[in-house]
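Entry: DUF3575 domain-containing protein
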Amino acid sequence: MKIKSIFTILILTLLVSYSRAQDIAIKTNLLYGGYTYTPNLSIEVGLGKRSTLDLGGGYNPWNLDGTAENNKKLVHWLGEIEYRYWLCQRFSGHFLGVHVLGSQYNIAQQDLPLIFGKGSKEYRFEGYGYGGGISYGYNLFLGIRWSIEANIGIGYARLHYDKYKCQKCGEKTGTESKNYFGPTKAGISLIYYIK
């Protein structure tokens, strides 16, 4: 818990020291939120003429069905930090990014073969992951304070989890770790600029 507090204070200190009102954007990833029913929010801060720092996260605390017979869920939190280099000027056009991410999850009855392998829908996975990667994106202005952004990233994630039989999610079948290579982010975000 102390590490989370120190990390949060460090990030807030960086934001305060580098930010001015016209250099800050608040956004939500509509693709992530719509596909996983996860409320999410990011703040992006201008660092230089062509660079920004994006801090984002999402939290999904709900079981999708929430009964003892059907324990379908995608409960998780996800945090991400990304440094972005803009090819023209910040908050406009194409950008390249480098990101790190961390997550904790409790997932049941979800078909996720790329992450947990074939037959993942028959199990519950409870654990955490961390990783990073590179990304590309494009930001299109809609008005003075609004824009829309599309991005995609690929990279690596290390997953650690306990695996359970999923009928009533009771019997633990083992503890596993996995190296994942592939998409690490995708987004279509609605952005509001604070001026």
